[in-house]
Amino acid sequence: MMKQPTGADAFAPFQQALTEGWSKALESFQQSAARGASAFSPGGTPLWEMPSMPGLANGMKMPELPRFSIAPEKLQSIQQQYMADATELWRQGFGARPEGDKRFAGEAWGSNPLSAFSAAVYLLNGRTVLSMAEAVDADEKTRARLRFAVEQWMAASSPSNSLALNVEAQKKAIDTQGESIARGIQNLLNDVKQGHLSMTDESAFEVGRNVATTEGAVVFENDYFQLLEYKPLTAKVYERPFLLVPPCINKFYILDLQPENSLIRYANEQGHRVFVVSWRNPDASMEQATWDDYIENAAIKAIHTVQEITGSKQINTLGFCVGGTILSTALAVLAARGEKPAASVTLLTTFLDFSDTGILDIFVDEQMVAYREMQLGKGGLLPGGDLASTFSFLRPNDLVWNYVVGNYLKGETPPPFDLLYWNSDATNLPGPFYAWYLRNTYHENKLAKPNALTVCGQKVDLGSIDIPAYIYGSREDHIVPIGGAYASTQLLPGKKRFVMGASGHIAGVINPPAKKKRSHWIREDGKFPRSQAEWLSGAQEHPGSWWTDWAQWLKGNAGKQIPAPKGYGNGKAYKAIEPAPGRYVKAKA
User: Fold this and answer.
1) CA-CA distances (angstroms) from residue 229 to 64, 108, 250, 268, 312?
2) Catalytic residue positions?
3) pTM (2 decimals)?
4) Least confident interval from 39-48, 117-126, 146-155, 362-371
5) Helix (H) / strand (E) containing 237
């Protein structure tokens, strides 16, 4: 145990060291802050590290690094708090304990004074730098970028990430006589070979064998998607078929992981004739594909194909995340053409109004969008790994460093988890599609403005989608914040039902009733005030999954029941091509 100093003279060297350390910390913050608030490039190289490019000579300039200031009184207050906390930490010496952080909660951290003290110092430094980021005199977007940069630094510099300081990893190495280190090295080599960090035991899963196993067939395909039809599980089905459009930035089987948590199978069990879009994983042949291509040749084509196969003039539709944005755009284009093919639309964690994009807003500004347009707007592919990395680093401790520590320092194999297997199964995006999407939605929010966009030759007005709409948002969603999901209620004119579920972007959606987990909130008075917070003040909490509420709503728009079809397609123009889940979903990025 460190001997505790008692006199003022004993503290003089320490106070001097604190003062010098504070000065260096302030200088370091100013440098890293300039970088942190510069334009970000999602999933790629930050703009400040980009090499010279010929396109910049044509009027484009790299953004200047912003300058920051902190009000003297705020800086003094932070400094005084730092001095007080550091002095108290020094008084505690090796008796200090890192409190309130699960990374240091293990018994081994508490039993090793040196490791515990290093963790406590790290947490103090992190709190201080974060306080400085909050105190910067700047606009909210700049402060958000600073917070993000500081949080990334804090996550990366944790003593738990170092074998030299992680006492749990050291203990495991001793207990296993070095075997854990050998396994960690092997895990690292395997991850380098596969090109991404393992979040689960990927050898435990195979698409079509134990994920994406609901019985069905591919009944149509083109260069953009395969259309899957699923075998009915009831003797009768509702007369209006049901089409699901998943996000094209991920694979569709998030909706069909295991039989017990499959939304596709659940809809089947409710008596719907279910069709699903399975997006093609883009390769070099799709480098020129545009947003218009995805609307005309995928979403609209899928709608028309389901109509032709079933003979139903109207169908029920569902869009998830970007799939909901694509579906809604397609329905608006069809409305402009005089077509009303949908009897209802369900939107799950979907942006139509991009005013509130949460943390993702820090990545989007004119310089970044212009760079992406120059890089990919004329053709090319955005690698799936780039987007996957971006989304992982939105929660760096949980989705990055947690696995670095477990896989490499401790030599552990992460347990099998279907959702994380799906999360690692990345998809590419065509460059022109991605560049258009960035500018017109995230950056300029034109989709929310009537007739501001022309898609497939038609002016887009979401107000023309005058049909019943079920809109779902997740309370802790960091990709589509609950306010962003709720904003769709202000754009769609038909009869609406908004439901908020607990948890995040995926776990909130994939929440089968049998699990009896997580609450959801519903407001029964039919009012949709301007903000989600106002809506919530009049909502009631209900235990368990929102799926049962949605199932009742969907049945009300599904029409009468008819005998279930005996086969796939319609026996003429559309026949079974191959069993579900099809080959498109198995293509790797």
Assistant:
1) 53, 53, 19, 11, 15
2) 321
3) 0.89
4) 39-48
5) strand 236-238
